[in-house]
Amino acid sequence: MMPMNQDISAHADILPANFYSFTLEDLQAYLKKFGKEKFRAQQIYKWVYESRVSNIDEMSNLSKDFRGELKNILNFDLPPVIKHLVSVDGTQKFLFDVKDGNTVEAVVIPSDDRLTLCISSEIGCNMACKFCFTGKQKLKRRLTADEIVGQFMQVHDSLQKEGLGRRISNIVFMGMGEPLDNSDNVFKSIEVLHSQWGINLSLKKITVSTSGIIPEMYKVAQAKVRLAVSLNAYSDEVRSQVMPINNKYPLKDLLEECKRYYRATGEKITMEYVLLKGITDQVEHAQKLVKLLKDIPCKINLIPFNEHPGSGYERPSDETVQAFHTETMRLGAQTLLRRTMGRDIFAACGQLATKIDHPETMDISNSKIGGTNARSFSHRQPSL
Ligand code: SAH
Ligand code: SF4
Q: CA separation (Å) from 340 to 89, 200, 301, 369?
């Protein structure tokens, strides 16, 4: 067995690596490089994910020498929470510091039967969808797997501290960024979150939402997680107008890829459809949409446009939204009207952005959108 110190110098460029980026198998392989037995990885995994202990000194079944060595090769850093807002409807938004002055957001959305965490995969997004707040910012950086897992862990710890007795039951990659533009890190984070030695979250409870990066979509089926597609239009003409990616990957090919996903998994696809006043919200648009999707095993998720400064789009009236919903159902499509959550804390779909580029999001705890009921408090770091 190689002496520890000697081997460390050979890995000095990557040390200490972030624990949260490792699947159990990766950690076993990593520790092996330093001459450590397989079961060590399991011991550490248990401390962190079962007992939520990440202070190496408290890992009492590891020898003092090993604990000393571990400090040189592993860190347990989580992205610090720099703002935590709670909406009047129970939605919570967390703003994370992801270094170099950048921030990303995650949102917890409660409903009767589930607690969904919406997480970010990138800082900014290059897809430039016209209606999306995140899309206004160019991609600054893709998040690492530990930054993605870290969002979950921070929120998980915060909920435990609040003592509400609820745990995150579902994860949706519908925060900032295009997950399939960061596939390696997104699917690695899914492996970590799914691991039976870790969080043990069911794959059926994880949804990856994409604007339609066709060459990467097979990975969603491969990972056995749910697929959501931001369709947002009933024709190529309209889709290209609001989502530039449609010029590269048009509807026909996108829907073909959706069928392939269904054949591989047997799971219906969620089609997200943002209702933009006068553009995608008319009854005849509903008819065209249902026709477009007639061969696709899917459910439609209607999202009334969430307004943000300078978007140039408007939210349709409740009556228009209702008429659209009714028409799709009359035509036999399985359609859900997504309740808008967290508007008062600027946490609704497509409203997420970094405070650096969008200073108007800085003072949202006092924002007029939410009146005075929205709460803001600084986050207490988990005592690990
Ligand atoms: N990039 C991925 C996931 C993040 S966007 C994707 O596009 O699928 C998550 C969802 O928010 C998408 O369905 C998108 O269409 C929707 N969305 C973006 N901006 C919105 C807005 N202003 N109002 C309502 N929904 C919006
Ligand atoms: Fe990016 Fe999704 Fe926003 Fe489009 S909707 S800009 S893909 S985050």
A: 10, 29, 12, 13
Q: Which residue has the tokens 């009767």?
A: 112
Which structure tokens are listed for 7? 């081997």
The CA distances from residue 311 to 59, 234, 292, in Å, are 51, 21, 27
- Bond prior to 16 in cis (omega within 30° of 0): yes
Residue 162: the pLDDT is: 87
Does the pLDDT of residue 236 top 80, yes or no? yes
Task: Calculate how far, in angstroms, residue 175's C-alpha sits from the geometric centre of ligand 2.
Answer: 9
CB neighbours of residue 146 within 10 Å? 24
Domain 4-75 top-level CATH class: mainly alpha
Task: Indicate the residue type of 31.
Answer: L
Structure tokens, 150 = 């870290």
Residue partners of 35: CB distance under 8 A and separation at least 6:
1, 2, 4, 7
Name the active-site residue from 69, 105, 122, 216: 105
Distance CA 378, CA 360 (A): 19
- Among residues 118, 132, 298, 349, the one annotated as catalytic is 349
Mean pLDDT of the region 214-235: 98
29-49 pLDDT, tens digit per residue, is 999 999 999 999 999 999 999
| Ligand 1 close to Cβ of residue 301 (< 6 A) | no
Closest ligand to residue 228's CA: 1
Apex 27 CA angle, 66 and 54, nearest 5: 60
Query: Is 132 annotated in the active site?
Result: no
Domain spans in the chain, listed from the N-terminal domain onward: 4-75, 81-378
pLDDT at residue 354, as a whole number: 52
- What residues contact 109, with CB distance under 8 A and at least 6 apart? 91, 115, 116, 117, 118, 341, 342
Q: Which tokens sit at 261?
A: 């996903």
177 closest CA partner among 230, 126, 228, 114? 126
User: CATH says 81-378 is which class?
Assistant: alpha beta
Return the half-sphere exposure (C-beta side, CA atoms, 13 A cut-off) of residue 120: 36
Cα(83) to centroid of ligand 1, in Å? Answer: 22
Residues 6+ away with beta carbon under 8 Å from 90: 110, 341
Indicate the pairing of strand 74-75 with strand 375-377.
unpaired
71: number of CA atoms within 13 Å, CB side?
10
